[in-house]
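Here is one such tokenized protein:
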Amino acid sequence: MHLYCGSALSGTLDELLEALRAIHCDAPAATGDSHLLPSGGQDTDGNAVSTPVTLPPLAPATRLHVVFFLRDFDECVNPKDAAVWLRWVHEVTKAGLAHVVIPTRASVTPTKVAALQALHGADSGDFVAIALRVAKGAVDATSAEDKLRELETEYGLGLRVRDPGGDELQTSASSDEARVVIGTVGNWWSDLVAVVERLRQRGLGSTSDSEERLALVRAVCEEFRQEVVDAILEHVRLDGSLDLQRIVLHSSTAGGGGGGAGTVASAPTDLSDGGDGDGADTEEKALRALESWKCLEVVSRVVVKSGLMMSPQQFLMKDTSRPPNCVPPVEALLPFGHRREGEAKFLELIDANVLFLRPKADVEVFVLPCAASDLIAPCWVETRPIVVSAFTEIWRSTTTDCHARAADLLAGGRQRNDTYFNAVQELERVATNKKVCGSPSRPPLLSSCSPALSPSQAAVQAQTSAADSHGRTNDRVRVQLREEIDLYAQEIDERQLLLTEQKNEFLLMQYKLTRAERVTRAAEVRVRRSCGAASWGDARFCSLGGVLLWMLTLSCARRQLSLLELEIDAKNAYLERLRLVLRS
């Protein structure tokens, strides 16, 4: 049924509820009585007659239910109407009058479930439902060219999509428009539809000149890409919404505390008039921005999370079962450090369509309400191709690798913009000050109201307060030292696990070149020689070069394992020193 909204919605649903109750009460009970149905037959004169036929009785527990399919619930923009519909659904299903199916095209996230609970209201208890998440067939595995060709058939803009069976030389000059669109948005349906819709609104179908058409396509794609870049910068707080220098100054002065006698403690910077709330709230926003940046680094695969460069063989041997642009949710959540605010920011990225949840199983059934981890754990965290490319462009402007920066300068022929680099450095300083200084201590509020003391009383009070302060400082240092030891031990365990995994990969890589693979490689060389693609000397050079590359790869892998073992040994030594300091 189509979703009905309007002023008379409540009355209409009440009437429908009463009709369902009447049908439910008037329905014949499912007992052992026989049901009579007419059946065709003939009398003695050959005329057709209807004779009763006795059917087997229904089972006592059998009862037919009406099923309602609410097709447009996502388009119900009025929260009041949505709340009325959910109240009716609750009453119908609670009384056992019918089954109600509410389809949704949005990701079933904790925010979506919380919104349903808020619309449902707490008067009747939780909104309990059986959720069916069907992933089989939900992902279109066709290429971007096929999708764009289908959109061209629908919109009729004259986009020249290259025919996969056509001549590359003849179609290269006429497929620049499609190449620009696909190179910008990638293989993603909604982005392709958005770009094609903008091209239709900008009048691409009525433009005949090829150069004007190509310029228009490039302009629209650049506008679309820039909007994605601006959205990413907004989520990671690099759009100028935070005064990072003031935040760094506030975090450093607030935790600097403690002067001696005759010193004046520096007052923390006031951030309340900056439009971002108080200082603690502003620091929290800065930490969320840095965590979001680290999360986008993980999902975009711009850095190797182990801290080591992958060899070509390791890259080929890595896990290929995951879909493109997908990472496990554990990897995506690691930068948030198991913080409740960080998990909320992660869910905010999903609700803003920066990240998506892609179910791993074809069909998944679960009960609502449930824990947030139960909704996210069975899914991949997927990123749109245009988000990956846009964030990669931003990230390259913040890299500190001198070789990468020099290569980009030589390739681009222009100076780098270090604005984002400086902003990320400021975020790193905020996180460092937050970790080292902790929460800022507030000055005593009644210090100015204390009565005057004699010199001897003041000296005794000063000694007592100094001893108490020293004891509190020691306790605070010990607590911080224990936390540092726990974090260091956890980091060592993670690096040890990484070392074990890389050793296993090294063993696989060391014995990967079997006799059968050598024969296969020799056969490939002979085929190339027969086709004239390489001479005997070239084939010999290729085979020798492959062996040398393989030996070089094994040597690099051994060196990486040695460095990792050395790092773990150094961390263990430092951990033992920290434990000695704690026991002393």
User: Anything to note?
Assistant: The mean pLDDT is 69.
